[in-house]
Structure formats: C-alpha cells, structure tokens
# Entry
Amino acid sequence: MSNNQAIQLGRIDWVTVGLYLFFVFFGWMNIYSAAYDASQPNLFDFDKEYGRQSLWILISFTLAVLTLLVEGDFFNKLAVFIYAFFVLLLMLVLVIGKEVNGAKAWFGVGSFGIQPSEFSKIGVGLLLSKYISSTGAKFKNWKTRLIAAAIIGFPACLILLQPDVGSVLTFTAFIFVMYREGLSGNVLIIGLGAIVFGVLSIISGATTIDFPFAGEQSGVWVLIIIVAIISILGWLFVKNFIVPRNRKTLYWIIAISSVASIAFSLSVSYIVEKVLEPHHRERIYVMLSMPVEREGADYNSQMAKITVGSGGFFGKGFLEGPMTQNNYVPEQWTDFIFSAVAEEWGFVGSVLVIGLFVYLIIRIINMAERQRSQFSRVYGYCVASIFFLHLLINVGMVIGLAPIIGIPLPFFSFGGSSLMGFTLLLFIFLRLDSERLSIFR
Amino acid sequence: MNLDGRRITIILIVGVIGIIYAIRLLFLQVINDEWKNQGVALTEKEVIVYPSRGLIYDRKGRLLVTNQTVYDLMVLPKDVKPFDTLAFCKLVNLSIDELRSGLLKAISWPNVKYKPSPLIKQITPPEYARISEELYKYPGFFGTPRTLRIYPQSIGALLLGDVAEIDKGELEKKPDYRRGDYIGKSGIEKAYENELRGTRGVKYVFRDNLGIERNVAEGKLDVAAVEGTDLIATIDAELQRFGEELMVNKRGCIVAIEPKTGEILALVSAPTYDPNLLVGRARGNNFRALNLDKQKPLFNRATQAQYRPGSIFKLAQSATALQLGIITPQTRIVCNRGIIGCHGSHSNDDLEMAIVHSCNPYFRGVMQRVVEADRDKTSRFKDARIGLDIWQGYIKRFGFGSNLGTDIPNVKTGLVPGVAYYDKWYGEFQWAFSTIYSLSIGEGEMLVTPLQMANMACLIANRGYFISPHTVKQIGIGGRPRDEYLVRYDSGIDTAHFTTIINAMEKVVGPGGTAGRAKLKDIVICGKTGTVQNEPKEDHAVFVCFAPKDDPKIAMAVYVENAGFGGTWAAPIASMMIEKYLNDTVSNVSEKKRILEANFLDR
# Structure
C-alpha cells in the first residue's frame, strides 16, 4: 500500500469544508429561531427540533470525519453494493416503513426517523459515476442511455411508490451529469421547451372557451390551433424560401415537432385536469398564480412569501421575526427554513445564502473538472447537480417560483436523514478530490 | 466530441438561477411593500389600554364607587397536560363534575381548543392570590384580570348610576367609542362620563397564527392611557343610607339640598336597590328583573315623577303675591268655603296664619288678585291672559317648568301652564280665572318634580335665590364643581317678603301646626305639609322644609306615595333626616320605629 491511501489534510478542500460548517451552524441557528419556544430555550432540549438537530449535527460530523478516512477507491469498488444496499432499504421501507403524511418513507425509531430516500441519491451517484466512467459507456448509444436511465429510474420508481413525488423530482438532477458526459444538449433544450409549453398548456387547459361551431371546449385547443397555424406558416416558409434539397428534412422536423407538441400539450392538460388528485392540481395552480377554488389551499405559499417579505433589507434580527416567532409558517424548520433566514436576516442574509450556495455548486463543478479520474469527476457533477436541484426547488418554493414540493434545503432544513445524506454525499467527493493527484481510474 | 463548453453551460444555468432568485428576493423583500404590509396586518395587533375609571367619594371622603380587579380563571385546552385533577379541584374549589363540564364547554363550539375560555369567573384578589401560587403546576390554566365597578356602600343606586357596554345607538353618536367600550348609563356615571372615563391608550402586541396575543412589540407607537378623574360627590353617604332605610317598604322620595350651594345631600328614590346588582355578569338578568318590578325601582321618583304640587305650592304663591304688591302680610281674606273646600277652624286669617292653616279660600283669593287685576278692563278673558302671563313669569323663576340646570341626567321638567297651554285646551278667550283657579292651591294642571320642590325650599331658605342642584362638588380631588354650579339664580322676589312666609313655616312645625310631629328640641325647622290628592287611591304625603331657620344648612322635599297626610308621614321623615344630618343622631326612637315599620307598598 502506498502513502496515497492515507488522508492528506493539505489536499482536502478546506474552503468547501468551511462553507459546509457555515451552512450547518447557520441552519441550526435558524431552526432554533423557527422552532423557538421561550419556555424551552435550551439549545440541546431534545423535545425541540433544535435539540434533536444538535444530535444530528454531531452524528453528521462523525460521519464526515469517518468518510474522509475511507480510501476513495472503496467508493468506486463498492458502488454497486452501496447502490444495492440503499435500493434494498427503499424496498424494505415500503413494507415495514412508518406512514407519515400519507407516505411510507420513514423507518421509525421512537421519535427519531430515518428516510432512506435521502441516502439513495448517494448510491445512484456512485453507481452512475462508476458506469459512465467505465469503458464502452457512450451517450451516443441507446444502450448507454437506457442503462443510465435504469440506474436512476429504479430507485426513483421505488420512491414514487411511497409515494414521495418531491424526492423523485430531485433525481432529474442527474440529467445535468449526463449532459456534461455527452448526452445531447437537445435534452436540455427540449426539457426547457417542454416546461414552457407545459405551463402554457396547464394555464390554457384550466379555462373553457366557447368555440364557434364546437361549443364549450377546453382552452388548450386555442394553443393547439396556434401550433397548427405556426406549422402551416413554417411549411409555407420552407416551401418558398428554402432550397429544395433541404426541404424534405425540414418538412419532417415541422411535422414531428408539431404533432409532438400537440400530443404533449393535450396530455399535460389531460393529466392535470383529469388524472391528478385535486390537492396536487391546487399546488400547481398556486405556483402559477392561478385562481384556486378551495379557501386556504395557497396558505403555505402565501405565508412563506409574507414571511420572506417581512424581512425587508436588513431583516428583523435573530429571534425577532414576527412571522417566524409567531408560527405563521407551518413546520417552518423543515422545508420552509429559508423563509426564517429571509425574515430574520433580510435581503442581505437570504442573498448571501443563495450566493454561497451558487458559489459552492460552481466550486464543486470546477473541482470536478480538475479530477484526473472520470469517476471522481462524474461523482462531483452528481453532488453539484443534486445540491442545485434542491436549491432550485426548495428556495423557488419559498419565494413562490416553484410549486410546493416537500424537499429539504441542504444543511439548513431540520432532519437527520437529509443532513447525514448531504454530508456523506459531499464528504465522499471531498475525499475523492483529496486524492486527485495520485489516483487515475 | 468536445464537451468542455458544457461546464460553462451548466455554470451559467446555476448562476442565472441564482440571479433570478436574488432579483425575486429584491422584489419580495425590498421593492414591493405588499408582503411586508400583509405581514404587519397579520402579526401586529392594536390593543386598547383602558384607563381605570375615576373613583367617586362622598362629601366626607367616604368611597362610594371604586374599581375592583377580579380574575377569571381561563383554560387554554391545547396547552393542558394531564394533571392531578383532585388537587386542582381542591385548589380552585370545584367539584370534579364542575371541572369536567367546564373543560368540555371550553372545547365545544363556539369555543375551540386554541382559544382561552373562562373556567371560573370573577375570583376575588385574595382568593386568586392563593390559587395563582399553585397554578404553575397546571399548564394551560391562567388568570386574566378584569375590572368591575364596585359600590362599597351599596347606596344611591340611581344617583350614582351604572356603567355598561355602549349600545349601537350611542356608538353612532360617539365616534371616539368602540364596540365593547364601557360607558356611564345613568346618574353621575353618565353625567360625568367624560371626566370619569380618562383617555384610552394604545399598545401594539404580536399575534400568532391562531390569533393569540404574544410578546409585546417595540412600543414606540404605544400611547399611554390617562387615568379617569376622581370625583367628590355632594351626597353624605350616611344621610343617604339613613334616608334609604326610612323609605324601606314605601314608594316615594327624599331630596335634601344644602341651600347655600345647591349641593344635593341625599337623593333617595324608593324602593331602591343595591347598585352592585348592575355589575358584571349578573347585570343583564338583574336589570331585566328590576325593569319588570311593579314598584319600578329603576324609576327615579325624585327627578322623574311629576306630581301636582299640592299645598306646599302656597309658599310660592305667597311670595309671588307679596312681590306683586297685591297683598301684604296683613291682608286678610275670608275663608269662604263655598267655591273651594278647606279644613280646620279658622275664618279670616292673615297671610301667616293662612299658610299655617293652609287655607284654600285664602289662596284662591290671592290668585284671583294676581290674575284678575283689571289690567284689561274690557274683558275678563283678556285680563286673565295678562295676569296668568305675569304669574307664570314669577313661578318659572322658582325653577318650575325647567330642568333646573342640574347635572342629573333625564330629569323631568314638570309643567307651569301658561296662556298657550290653556288656549290649546279651551281655545283663545274661552277661559278666565274661574277656569284655572285650581292652580292657586297647587292642584289643577300644574306638575312639579320633588327635586323642584326641594329647590323651592332652598330658594325660601336663601330668602330669594337658588343654585342649580347638583351631585358633584369637586371634579378631581380638591377641584371645583362645574362653573354653572357657582351661579345664583335670583327669583326676583325681595328678601323681605320671605320673613312672613318663613315665620309661618316655623309655626307649621310647631305646637298645633300641621307638622307638629316634626318638631325638634334644638333645631328650628321651617316647613310646609302637603297632601296631594290621588283619587281613588290614598293621598300622597308631602313635606318641604329647611333648617335651621336662621342659618339654613339643609332644605328638603319628602314624598311618600299613598301614605295619607303629609304631617303624619312625610314631615317626621324630614325631621329625622335633618337631625341626623345636623346632629348625627335621631332622638325620637319611637317615631323612627313607627316610620321604619310602616309599609305602603301595597296601597
């Protein structure tokens, strides 16, 4: 065994560790404030969320140190087993899990619970990295695409069975990883286009319009008529202004894309209006600022926005936020913790947190790029993408730019599973990164 | 395939999202005030700080009206944890069943477990002190203070008045009151509402998501409350109490006034009630019961009952005639009982003896001279119009037909009929002296209140003037009464004219006088009895008086409804009141016993 197996402290990225510590302790402060109870001010009171979080922090720090002591090769070699272990847990939780809020997502131990879905991303990240870095994996090939999709999709489907749609959504993070490793950029463009077109379909689909001859019909038909008109105009354009040898390909593109758009639009509208449960439909409507029938359906969203707005430029100060201290945001210490940050630390504090997250993500991307090992690089992208998606959805939800989806803000939100999961995710990469000069895989 | 650019793409996506979120935050937190304002509207609550209402003392500094803090033991069901119910019941003096039903009530509609509900109401401070020491053992239970108006002497209900929540009608007229505010409804509480009330303060508190008030907000916008002003009432609590005692089981009233100042020393309306009945929780039910009571305890007989004046009015008639110069003290008129009846044996009295004998023909004659003075020689109808006008002018200057400018709310004015009144009844030039002569002896259309009669006694005692009778002598301890209670109202009758009248009144309360029973050994009382006919029921017994003769300290009107002769029932009550006030004793024990035992309620 060579000396590169022992951890070399100088090679650990201490800036990232510093950011990690800042997030964890600042998060703890905000959990303390959000769950504060003047009659139980003890930071280590296990009756309160901040007390329990102190225990999770201690465990996470231990896990972080242990992770740094493990040789990086271990994660590469055992990626399959780690993946399999977490998949097994995801299966097990469906059988013996505790049902909380309608989802079988928890292993309960007294008042403490473990949520395996928070850990499964580590397994997916490791196995995906191992697979992509293996010889023969090329995203040009459908085989590679399918295997990668299977690695991601299998645990995602298990989580969907719980059901926990929010956690499943975070698995879309891996698209960024695959894009970086050669998946066509059209995926991102088509994805973005689908989001825009999907939103238009939902908005138009929720209205009914009195059509001439056809009577009352869903507004989505207006969208379809527009698509048809654009297609005809495109066809006329190609026919008159494009050289004949290129026309055939373009005709095909126009035909396929218009049919695909119409089919997509119809199905999105149909799913939202007919398939989704009313409360899911409400959440989407609330995000899109569309009118919601049920009184109070947008309560959480409203309260979160008011709480954020209440902070103003400099914030109300620690333990001084009237919305936070008076419990206006339900379970603020979990998924809505960012609203507490925004109220008590103001625009200054909330932008600082977002800025530091963006900085951390970009830093991890840049660290990933400096890896000689493809495994380490892909894994680095996995870490960055997962953090990004959590930031995107969680903060977006609090400030009213994303639907109410229950996923945690990394290191900030109360909860042992997410804190331990994100800690392991990050520190595995830090260990891999510390070996970047000596390991070629 | 060159993939290096893709790092940049991904970094750009992350960065752009970061910038979009920062801009969104800029709008939410800095540029747009909408969310901030919604937050303030949700979390901050304006709480009114009520000043404590001013206290009221009697003229000798005895506390008449005060505020008492009592405590309601509240329960907030969501905070209640399992507790030792037995020990708790013992602590708060409830049975297990009462506790159970109280707790059930606190969680059943319209109460909810997030809102505090009262478990036990109006716990006294010492009792609460005992309970509160142990209360920490029982989370979810706490006391909230409430202020009640308390009347420690239990006297003067109608004089002191009461307070209650402001009603809709009042609220529309008084913009600086809010729903649920307390306001004086009657008596001094109403008349001096502005002084007693003080100025409301405001403080801002935080309100949590369930609407429960929490810790106090910063306080720079808070406005301190200004306490209500204390008052010194004019009444003498002991005299008032004694008056109420004497009037037990009778309908009627006593009005006692200090002539020199117009200060009301006692204002008894019988039957009365304990003012503490109209306080707090029980107010509604008690008010309803009092309102339905056939004896009408809520009706202030001293200021709202309008009686025909009866014989005591002869005093005002005498003074008017003397001032007009139509008679002199030596004028004699034959007691001709043909037109109008009389009583006792006399035949040709002068003024003094006519008053003593209450000679009806004499005063009919006096009135005839006032009204039919040949001022218009063409028609006795026209003559009567001129005469009645002159008479009415004098009588009104006694305070009759007016509210006297008193501070007692809702007083009646009585009636001094004049030309317009009779024109309306009989038609112009359709009436003459022969139509209206009943006025001469205080019968007929004229109406007076007991307060006005007591005021007339003051005017006579003062030999020609009165000061508006009032109930508050100092606004603020050591303060002054209202300005209008320092003003003398002159009757326009020369002081000299009262000598004969007062001498006659002295004889009334002397041996052989109609109020001989009222005589006291060492105090010279001047009085006049009256007996107001009230067919088919028993007459009302009436007596007006003042004492001592040479330096009057107290003037009084006493009405005892359906009791009979004034000298038998009203005069002794007045006499005992005078002795009580001036000497602080009652010497004639048997007379007191006779009065106390009398019961005229069923007549």
Summary: Residues 202 and 271 of chain A are 9 Å apart (CA to CA). The longest strand of chain A covers residues 103-109.
